Amino acid sequence: MNTAQPISGAVAQPGPTTGGGAQPGQPGQPPQKPRRRVLTSLGFQIFIFFGGWWDVAYYILNILVFVYKGLQLPYPGRNFAMEFSFSWLWILIEAPRLFLASKGNKTERVGPIAFSCVLAMPLLALYVYFVGFQTYVLRIDQLLNGVAIAFMALQIVFAILTMVRFILATRFT
């Protein structure tokens, strides 16, 4: 049996109710707060998302290039170990950087985004090292690190724009 219909089969007429069914702005109903604008940056989140997928491809290709260089080129032992460990250091910094950037964007907080920009500086140094100061720099190294620097530059630009947006929104409200 449908409890929304009266038993007699007559259609119930809409009328005033006592349980808070009044329309907003009518007596008996508390005024609603105005809706707050969403400040998160879709463009920034897109670059974080695709930057994460690029990082997976970059890491796999970078490791494969190191294996190739280790097998085919006469590497000094200490240099190979140091440069290979830089790849592990890269992943230990890059994953938290992207996480903080994403979290800061989604929660509309400047702190995590600013810290992700600070973490970008040692990563930029690693990219520059990989592109110019490794023992052997192949064209694939230049390509991979060039694309990675471009992704990071776009992410930093969007991060700065997003932080400015968050700061201005909280300052003038």
From TrEMBL:
Localization of this protein: Membrane
Name of the gene encoding the protein in the UniProt record: PLEST000699
Residue stretches spanning the membrane: 42-68, 80-100, 112-131, 143-168
Species lineage: Eukaryota, Viridiplantae, Chlorophyta, core chlorophytes, Chlorophyceae
The protein's name in its UniProt record: Transmembrane protein
Native source organism of the sequence: Pleodorina starrii
Region annotation Disordered: where it falls in the sequence: 1-35
Source domain of life: Eukaryota
Family matches, as InterPro entries: Uncharacterised_TM-17
UniProt-listed GO biological process terms: non-motile cilium assembly
Predominant place of localization: membrane
Cellular component terms per the entry's GO annotation: ciliary transition zone; membrane
Membrane topology: Multi-pass membrane protein
Keywords assigned by UniProt, alphabetized: Membrane, Transmembrane, Transmembrane helix
